[in-house]
Design a protein that fits this description.
Layout lengths: L1 H28 L1 E3 L1 E4 L1 E2 L8 E2 L1 H13 L3 E2 L2 H8 L9 E8 L3 H13 L3 E5 L1 H9 L12 H9 L3 E5 L21 H23 L6 E2 L7 H10 L3 E2 L6 E3 L13 E2 L6 H7 L4
Length: 275
């Protein structure tokens, strides 16, 4: 009878005592990585997806004061592949959509305070600005030449935000549209991503370092296609990443926190526990 009880008792101890301690230990050894998602930097517009140059600079100053060190996505990739270290308190910045104001306001401020960022561009917006009226702070997106310049600056890494799927219709981002098969969705998405990848290589001399889901929206087929083409993928889940060295699977679901421009620096950072 006693022999029959021992395996059950051991299993109880393992599940309720040893495993929670092991999980807790792993959590404690993980490095927290907040990834902040910016969009437009504007002196004239306010809102959830706009931030003033003054507020952006305030963020950079306060992050440094709180002990954060800016890291590149390249450094994050090396760490998650088990090939390099990260500082004790890393932070990664991203800018979505490829607004011209990211160059005009963002580049000088990032340089001034020693920060880098990933710029996720939309191909069709860039093509339009490259062939029509451009360099207007109110509405322009970056041209191909300007993206190439930013890539050479050493401040920005360049990522993909689709060629022309940053839209609510006829599909919501990369998700399947009504009446479409999985095969048709995969074909359309691969064609779009090939277009942005090819344009960035041919016109800017860069390969995208990551993909950012438009609106943070994806489904199983969209995720499968994206993961087959990019080794790093940004989502819009608003939480802090917990990174373990060598945990490469984390790269395909990197969480980001949108920088809501209606909030001040201290309130925003405190709300998301970026202490």
């Amino acid at each position: 009878m006693k022999k029959a009880i021992l395996p059950t008792l051991f299993a109880f101890v393992l599940v309720f005592c040893i495993l929670p301690v092991a999980v807790a230990g792993a959590e404690e050894s993980a490095i927290p990585l907040p990834i902040l998602m910016y969009h437009s930097v504007s002196k004239t517009k306010t809102g959830v997806y706009f931030i003033s140059p003054e507020a952006l600079e305030s963020d950079l100053v306060e992050l440094k004061r709180r002990g954060y060190t800016s890291v590149t996505l390249w450094e994050v990739k090396r760490f998650l592949k088990g090939e390099g270290p990260l500082p004790e308190k890393p932070v990664l910045l991203t800018f979505d959509d490829g607004h011209y104001d990211n160059l005009y306001y963002g580049l000088p401020l990032l340089k001034k305070h020693g920060f880098t960022a990933v710029l996720n561009v939309i191909g069709c917006f860039t093509e339009y600005s490259s062939t029509h009226e451009k360099d207007c702070l109110e509405y322009s997106h970056l041209t191909w030449d300007e993206i190439a310049y930013l890539a050479r600056s050493g401040v920005f890494e360049i990522g993909s935000h689709t060629y022309q799927m940053h839209a609510y219709k006829p599909r919501f981002g990369v998700k399947r549209k009504k009446g479409e098969s999985e095969e048709e969705q995969a074909l359309a998405l691969n064609e779009d991503l090939e277009a942005i990848d090819r344009a960035l290589l041919e016109k800017c001399g860069v390969r995208p370092v990551a993909f950012a889901y438009p609106f943070g929206a994806f489904d199983p087929t969209g995720e499968k296609v994206v993961k087959s083409r990019y080794d790093a993928v940004f989502t819009c889940y608003e939480r802090i990443n917990k990174l373990q060295k060598g945990d490469e699977k984390k790269l395909t679901r990197l969480y980001r926190i949108n920088r809501d421009g209606t909030k001040g620096t201290t309130a925003f950072l405190n709300e998301h526990r970026i202490f």
